[in-house]
Each structure stands twice: as structure tokens, then as C-alpha cells.
Amino acid sequence: QVISPEGLATNAPAVIFVLSTFLGVFAGAWVTVRLVLRRPLVTAFGKNWRAVIRNGVLAAEIMGLLGGLGVLYAFVSSDPLPNVPFVEWLGLFVLAVPLILIQVTTEELMFRGVLQQQLAARFRSPWIWMVAPSLVFGALHYQPDVLGSNAWIACTSTAMVGLRRRISIAARNPSSVWVGGMRTSTMHRSG
User: Fold this and answer.
1) pLDDT by residue (tens digit) across 53-97?
2) Are 159 and 137 in contact (CB under 8 A)?
3) How far apart, in whole angstroms, are the C-alpha atoms of residue 32 and residue 168?
4) How far apart are CA 141 and CA 162, in angstroms?
5) How far apart are CA 89 and CA 91, in angstroms?
6) Quick one: which of 189, 187, 180 has its CA closest to 48?
7) Which residues, including other chains, have CB under 8 Å from residue 35's CB and lie 6 or more apart?
8) Which of 8, 39, 90, 158 could form an SS bridge with 138, CB 3.0 to 4.6 Å?
9) Which is nearest to 134 in space by CA: 107, 153, 172, 152?
10) Residue closest to 24 by CA, chosen among 138, 109, 146
């Protein structure tokens, strides 16, 4: 059984399956950007590819450091037991890493590249295009059946992570807030 009756991915094949579903979501976003919005997909990620790549590498480095610290803490604080033989784990790792990259890229494409840019092009107030996508993203992470009474913490912290970046940029230079690499002052607004 790949997915439990509760809808949870409870084993490695289930996790690989769930991650692979983001391929379809990515394809749908790509079709939306190309056919509905009539622009190249690259515009959803920003005009400055060097900055996009630099920020992606920096994020990977930070997450690698935090993940490494988490693993180190696990080894220091307990006696870890192997759950999966190393060769099997390595095979799953090779499958999971590109799928995780697709998953996070798809989320960024949908919430920052499409939703946030479209809201910024239509509404003058940054509260709409900064806050709304973060709240929707946080709400999609609300899972009380999985997280119990802590579900609101996961939901709120996920929304706050999305807000933090845009608010910090706006606080440093309000006239130069960038949305997906596009200066909001140069975007067409209808209201």
C-alpha cells in the first residue's frame, strides 16, 4: 500500500510517488505561464539568472548546514539505528533529491512566480501581493490530522517564512521591491 487510508505517505515508495506528482503541477504551471499569461517560463523566476542561481546555491548551502547539524545532533543525542540498508538508502536518495528540487521549484514557481507576480501586476498595495500568497501557502500546510494541535504552528511558521523575505526587502528599500526578479514599479497595474 503506497498511501495510507489517512492519505499519508508512510514508506519510501509513497514519498517518491508524492514527490513525483509535482512534475504534473510544474507542467501545469508551465502551460499556464506560456499559454494563458503568454510569456516565457523564465520570466516567472526573474530576469537576473545569476541572482536566481546564487540565491539557490546559498539556500542549498544553508539547508545543507542545518541538515548536517540536525544529523550531528541525532548522533550525539541518541544511538541511531539503521532503518534501511545503506545501498537501498542510497538508491532512494538518488531518486529523492531531484524530486525534492522539482517540488520546491514548483512551489516557488506557483506562489512567487505566478500568483505573486499576477497580484502585484493588478494591485497597488504590497499587502495584497506580499501577504496573500504567503497566507495561501501557509494554509495549504495546515494538517491537523497529521500534526494534531501543532498544526497551527506549522501553518503559521510556513506563512511567516514566505513573508519574511518580501518584508525585509521592502524595509530596506521600499521603492525597489522585486517580485520574481521584476521591479513592481515597472509592472502594469490596473487598480
Assistant:
1) 787 788 778 878 888 898 888 878 887 677 778 888 888 889 998
2) yes
3) 29
4) 12
5) 5
6) 180
7) none
8) 158
9) 107
10) 109
Residue 43: CB atoms within 10 Å: 15
Cα–Cα distance between 118 and 52 in angstroms, integer? 19
- Residue 53's alpha-carbon distances to 14, 40, 93, 117, in angstroms, are 30, 18, 23, 19
Place of cell 494534531: 148
Gyration radius of the chain's alpha carbons: 19
Neighbours of 137 (CB within 10 A): 21
**What is the C-alpha to C-alpha distance for residues 24 and 40, in angstroms, rounded to an integer?**
18
Alpha-carbon distances of 156 from 144, 151, 170, rounded to whole Å: 13, 9, 21
All three cell numbers of 79, joined, read 544511538
The identity of residue 95, as a single letter, is L
The model's pLDDT over 112-158, given as tens digits with 9 standing for 90+, comes to 888 888 898 898 888 888 889 889 988 988 888 888 888 899 889 88
pTM, entire model: 0.71
Q: What are the grid coordinates assigned to 174, written together?
A: 521600499
CA distances from 84 to 2, 14, 77, 92, 93 (A): 17, 15, 20, 10, 11
